[in-house]
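Help needed: design a sequence for this.
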């Protein structure tokens, strides 16, 4: 059984047609479960994926906009498997960012 991950995306473009087309392509390829509104040059979007961040498909979608004004930031997570990923699309390429796992220090005394 494939693990279902949640992806939270912020998509930004000063070009309204690029923004709307990118959001349309994402919503056609993934199950979205948030209201999709594009206003003020941005859109917050939540969608599911089978397994970790679907980088190949997202590269296919954003490949149409290389050289265009487009910025995308995606946080992918699946809590039960302790998966957290952070990806940014900027200047025509995807970059994986490190996500730190929060750990509490059990040696700290409370007053």
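Sure. Designed sequence:
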């Amino acid at each position: 059984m494939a693990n279902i991950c949640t992806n939270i995306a912020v998509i930004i473009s000063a070009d309204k047609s690029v923004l709307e087309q990118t959001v349309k392509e994402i919503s056609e390829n993934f199950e979205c479960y948030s209201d999709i509104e594009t206003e003020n040059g941005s859109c917050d979007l939540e969608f599911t994926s089978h397994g970790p961040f679907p980088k190949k498909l997202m590269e296919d979608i954003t490949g149409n906009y290389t050289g265009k004004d487009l910025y995308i930031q995606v946080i992918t997570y699946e809590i039960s498997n302790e998966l957290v990923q952070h990806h940014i699309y900027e200047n025509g390429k995807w970059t994986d960012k490190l996500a730190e796992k929060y750990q509490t220090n059990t040696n700290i005394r409370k007053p």
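Strands lie at 4-12, 42-50, 71-78, 83-90, 93-97.
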